[in-house]
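Workshop exercise sheet. Pairs work together: one partner reads the sequence aloud, the other fills in the structure field after running the prediction. Swap roles for the next sheet.
Pair: D.N. / O.F.
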Amino acid sequence: MKILYLTTVLPSGKRTGGEIASQSFINALKYSGHEVLVLGYQRLGDRNSKNDREVVVEKRYIETEKSKYYPFLWMTLSLFKRLPYSAAKYYSKKYFQQIQKILQVNDYQIIIIDHAQLGWLLPLLNQKYKVIFIAHNVEYQLYESQLKNKQKFLSKYIYKREARLIKKMEDHLAISSKEVWTLTSHDANYFSTQNQISRVFHLPSSWTISPKNSPIKNCDIGIIGSWTWKANKSGLEWFFQTVYPYLPKTISIHVAGSGAKFLLERYPNSNVKYCGFVTDAQAFMAQAKAIAIPSISGGGIQIKTLDAIASGSPIVATTVAMRGISDYPSAIKIADEPEYFALSLMQLLAFNKKSELYEIEREKLLNNRLTWTVLRRENFYSSVKNAINSI
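Structure field:
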């Protein structure tokens, strides 16, 4: 079967959780024997894609914080077109033209719209195409949750407008699509009110296997994420404002990921080390005695939680960080209160000692995580195959 996969940013680079999730679906579709052509943007500065099954609409800025004056242009376009700002970022005539060019030459049985922010593409697709909408989150709920924390009138207006417009767009996508594919039961329940076929897919880790050899532990607590996303950054802020005071200053805390340079100024010459973007996230997690995942907002499923499980390291996470993951394996503590979060970390660190007992337990832990990761991937691939075959 020939499938056209329309997305925001070409996901093969797997730079963010959203891109990793998209690539997981693409991999599953290809694994099932389908021919998939992926269409999307590429970040400015990235190398040209060598994948002949990827089509670059154009290169452009993606993250608002790194986009110079473009946010003002996107906001103007958003107002002019009455689009959500998050959708205006990806709107272009080139995208329309590229789709028209592709559909004139090839006949696709299924078209997948990946992310609600591409809802403006729907009018281009007539009823002969079977459209699947992949909803990574219930987008409007994310903006409504951030609206609660805004005090200034302008900020409240912007987030209220964004929530209203993105809700209209994602609801229309859900109603107009053959099926809606989601990542959590919460999201599937929401979209089931607009589409009778709203499926849940239990996304796997982006890593193939857990590391079998015990790596050298170079820090006590590791925290990793894309901190340019406000929902992630708020969790990091919560950790250092409320959990950090309960932790002894003798333990080492390493933070990885773009967008947290503020830690350098706040904690100079301390036990906190900001590592910036790391090329090997799996190695970073595996080298930590314990992983902290202090998420306090957001939707969908967190890729970094799945990857932390696959790393083999013990984990302390909030309830929000574990959303969409109900059957998690051992050595994972859930804590929402700052004091208990800190206590849980210290309990894991206390056991993390070089001893014969520790090595035996660590081997059991790695085997347990490996089995869980492999089975989750197999189930995901099987679910995608069954869903696409039913269409």
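Discussion prompt: The longest strand covers residues 35-43. What would you look at next?
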